[in-house]
Design brief:
By secondary structure, the protein is α+β, with helices and mostly antiparallel strands. The protein has 4 helices and 3 strands, in the order E-E-H-H-E-H-H. The protein has a single domain, classed as 3-Layer(aba) Sandwich (GIY-YIG endonuclease). 48% of the residues lie in helices and 27% in strands.
């Protein structure tokens, strides 16, 4: 089974949400349906980054790293750097 680390973005509120899942389509729907109270406040969400991993542990490791950046500019730099190279 494959896992994905993802970053969601809401343009209206300029907010990011970082997570991991084994099914990005279902997870995005859950965020949009109000199953998560924090993401429900800032919908609609768009997936701006996703990276596949062979194990949950690897996906969680990248998720923790992205959350450790704690800065929109640093998250944007990481995403651009990863996509570009």
């Amino acid at each position: 089974m494959e896992f994905v680390t993802y970053v969601l973005y809401n343009k209206t509120h300029d907010r990011y949400y970082i997570g991991h899942t084994n099914n990005i389509e279902i997870r995005l729907k859950q965020h949009s349906d109000g199953r998560n109270s924090w993401t429900n406040r800032y919908k609609p969400w768009v997936v701006i980054y996703q990276n596949k991993h062979p194990t949950r542990a690897e996906a969680m490791r990248e998720e923790r790293y992205l959350k450790s950046l704690k800065n929109k500019e640093r998250i944007q730099e990481y995403i651009k750097k990863y996509i570009a190279g």
